[in-house]
Write a structure and sequence with these properties.
Oligomer: single chain
Helix content: 40-55%
Shape: globular
Structural class: alpha/beta
Largest sheet: 7 strands, mixed
Order of helices and strands: EHHHEHEHEHEHEHHEEHEHHEEE
Number of helices: 12
């Protein structure tokens, strides 16, 4: 009998709803912001040396929250220099939000934005078809490598677009996070489609090591409050469960035994810690900075 479980990506509106709730309930953006404030300046310290224009490529830029923070650090390091900021983002809704955010932000006079409503793979295919290979001074891929079909090929393609003193920055879940524990154990039971796969910094390290690429790794500690997941019938809890399992309506469609095991696992130390009556899921991230 076919399982009634469907991938969350078959319902883009519910996916976005669960993703936004995840951002509200987690320190995801806070810990990234802290990294951008404290450590990004050193990463970008020499990418624009001697240049009158700096070219940035944001792969999976989403609604632009983190992109604009990155741009502010670039402007501080290279005042007055023209910045071309190209954004690859397949969601029209996210691009709309990004454009709204840009319109509300001051001091962007020297930044030229170009949005490409397409996936990383579509961008690559289009560039190859047009026989273009633009070079970039800084490329970042933040929390997006789960959505590409071929992770090693995607990294190799974008790494190949780096200028001589450029950097490629990747952020994704850490191999020491609750995601790793949950997905290693139950990934094969979740209804994955070809739109999404589980990948963590542990996989990326292996790819980079086998390609002989030089990189630095930074670990960011982060958590997500999943207390509502344990309140039967709680709407937010159900959305967060969907996000954790990448399953649409997980609590309604999962076989009872799978649901029981997942709920049990989510409370264990490998996934979460209980603090002040809250269940905090380990959402640790890794930042990987790759040299040309």
């Amino acid at each position: 009998m076919a399982s009634p479980m469907r991938s969350l990506f078959t319902n883009p509106a519910r996916y976005l709803q669960s993703f936004r709730l995840f951002l509200v309930n987690s320190t995801e953006h806070q810990c990234m912001q802290e990294f951008m404030e404290r450590q990004l300046p050193a990463v970008i310290a020499s990418i624009g040396n001697g240049k009158s224009t700096i070219n940035i490529l944001s792969v999976g830029g989403g609604a632009g929250e983190i992109d604009l923070l990155i741009l502010s650090k670039l402007q501080a390091r290279y005042p007055g220099v023209t910045i071309n900021n190209d954004v690859i983002e397949p969601s029209a809704e996210q691009i709309f939000k990004y454009k709204e955010r840009v319109a509300e932000t001051t001091n962007l006079e020297n930044v030229k934005f170009t949005w490409h409503e397409e996936t990383a793979y579509e961008y690559e295919s289009r560039m190859n078809a047009e026989k273009k290979s633009e070079k970039w001074d800084f490329i970042h891929m933040i929390q997006m490598l789960y959505y590409v079909k071929d992770v090693p090929a995607t990294i190799r393609y974008f790494h190949g677009l780096l200028e001589a003193q450029a950097k490629l920055l990747i952020i994704l879940v850490s191999g020491s996070s609750g995601w790793e524990t949950l997905w290693k154990k139950f990934g094969s039971s979740f209804p994955l489609d070809d739109l999404c796969s589980y990948v963590s910094s542990a996989n990326i390290k292996n790819i980079l090591d086998s390609d002989g690429l030089k990189y630095q790794l930074h670990e960011l500690s982060s958590h997500m409050d999943i207390t509502s997941c344990f309140i039967e019938g709680n709407e937010d809890g159900e959305l967060l469960l969907d996000f954790l399992t990448e399953t649409c309506e997980f609590s309604k469609t999962a076989p009872p035994e799978l649901k029981r095991q997942v709920m049990e696992e989510l409370r264990k130390p490998g996934c979460s810690e209980e603090r002040d009556g809250k269940v905090l899921f380990n959402n640790n991230l890794s930042v990987i900075v790759i040299e040309p």
